[in-house]
Design goal:
Length: about 240
Amino acid sequence: MIIDSIILDRDLLHIESLKKYGESIPYLNIKACFSNLNQAKAYINKNKIDLLFMDLEFAQQQKIDWNEFNIQKPEVIISMSCASYQHKDHCISAFDYIMKPVSFEKFIRVLNNIYIQKQGKTAHPKPETKKNDFFFIKNNSQIEKVKYNEVLFFKGMKDYIWIQTINKRIITLQTMKNLSIYLPADRFIRIHKSYIVSLEHIDIIDKNRVVIGQERIPIGDTFRPSFFKNLKEQELIWD
């Protein structure tokens, strides 16, 4: 399930922070940013939107009538610079509040709560399917079979992905965000905006990088907390 969202704000630094965080969350798609309510309304009436990130000052200045929108009321996350404003009347109810500057930990915690809630609303039983230990990827004019246990890491290069396996390198037209959706979370993890690594093939972990064979791969500051949390949750790291 993908959560489609837009940002309503005039704070460019805040917008860039949210967009950067959003790149690391595979189920979040930040589709557009607006500083004008009428422009946002026109966009929302033509596009599917599940979530709004809205600045408190922006919300206080606008009287939002959801009857003017051709959608069901989306979830709203209010961002603000001062906690004392949280309980003031700003003409709109919020799913949650986040303080500026927003930490990645707070951001992903709120997003996970929304994701879990929406999954609960849309969940329906599915027949059990066998999990394959391989996938197919386009390599030039061919579609090539790749085994999960042979992949060392994925490296993003704009619209292309470098897949490094034990025996070879494959370059394919793909994005890191799409890749994160399909890869099994118990096998692979994103540790940098440009890298997804195989947990099975990590030889050494230190504060700033992982070592896989001869490759030294950086751990991005944004991804470090979720990386180590993932290792602990899978009981792969013992303190």
